Amino acid sequence: MIVPMIFGLVRDGYVVQSTVRMEEEEGPPRPAPLSGDWRRLPEQLAWGAVPGGRLKWVDFGVAPEWEGPPLADLQAAAIAKTYADVDAIYDAAVGRRVSEYARAEEAARAYLAAEVEPSVVSDYITGHATNNPTGQQQTNEWAARQIIERADAFRWAELQMRNVRFARQADMRAAVSPEELATAVGGWEEFLTWLRSTLDL
Questions:
Q1: Strand residue runs (E) in the chain
Q2: pLDDT one-digit tens code per residue, 21-53
Q3: Rounded CA separation 12/8 (Å)
Q4: Alpha-carbon gap, residue 16 to 158, rounded angstroms
Q5: What ranges do the domains of the chain cover?
């Protein structure tokens, strides 16, 4: 594309502006948006998740280069992503069924705490005993223990997500280069992969 270029010449102590027409350099292709490979964060997070990348013109006759946003912007984007990642775990594990699961847990704990089996058992328990991932009818005690086991597992996962998030965010803030930031992000991504596997999500 032909574009006008304005440049200044110093002549007899005065700046004289001239306009010329020259072929605009298109520059290299913009890097692809962020993918699942955290090791490519310096080249991906900069372009896919953080606005501010631009063509940097070094000199006439030299192809421009992409210049990424400041490290602080990359750090802010990486830290913000940790919250979205945690939300995704919540969505996958309980979604909007927090109240339902809380009632089921309450019923299950009350059932197991009783010295004798109550004459009326909560439908939260009997429903799980009848229809569960095993595809077979189970006892009420089995169902109650399964409900509590799952509740305890996710309560443990909540604490892990909180503490590991804090630790990796601290690493992200302390990073002094995109590569160090990528290492911190990588640690967080590896934790998420492990946690999803542990929770069978």
A1: 2-11, 14-23, 54-56, 65-67
A2: 334 445 545 444 444 455 555 455 544 444 555
A3: 13
A4: 66
A5: 2-69, 72-198
